[in-house]
Amino acid sequence: MRRTARLLTGTTGAALAVAAAGLLASPAYAGEAPGPSTAGLRMYPSSVAPGAQVSANTAACGEEGTAAGDASAVGAGRFTLAPSTHDGEAIGQFQVPPSAQPGTYEIVVTCAGSGRRVTGDLVVTLTPDAEQVVPRGSVKTGVGGALGPDPAQTAAGVTALAVAAAGGTWLLHRRARGDGI
What we know:
8 strands
């Protein structure tokens, strides 16, 4: 019995050592935190209803600032991006067709001078962000929080729990003294 315990302890220790070595050997990344690239394609707004106007911005084209956009994935066709008032950014607009179906669509922009290609996602929903309904309050499932909308029910529940706790304590105390139940 004792030998088995030592064997398991040795195996567990070896497993922990291997796990620690794996954690120490994992690559460490320095530099920028992961996140959206400033040189990508950004949509304003990023979530629209069919028929809405969308602006596409990118800093990927640099100082030249002109680019050709392709929104045919959503059915809007081609559009042009021109230099904007922000340094090194290009901006263009297109309209999402009223017949567009809900989903996520990839919009592609190709810079005029360098031929660099950047993409961005556009989300088409049935209702625009301004009209979307946000749920409020609690879900009426019949089970849940202690503080409901009726203070009388809450007080009755607290009283019932207090009586049950006192009765249980009294019975346990009586049994421990040997009085019988």
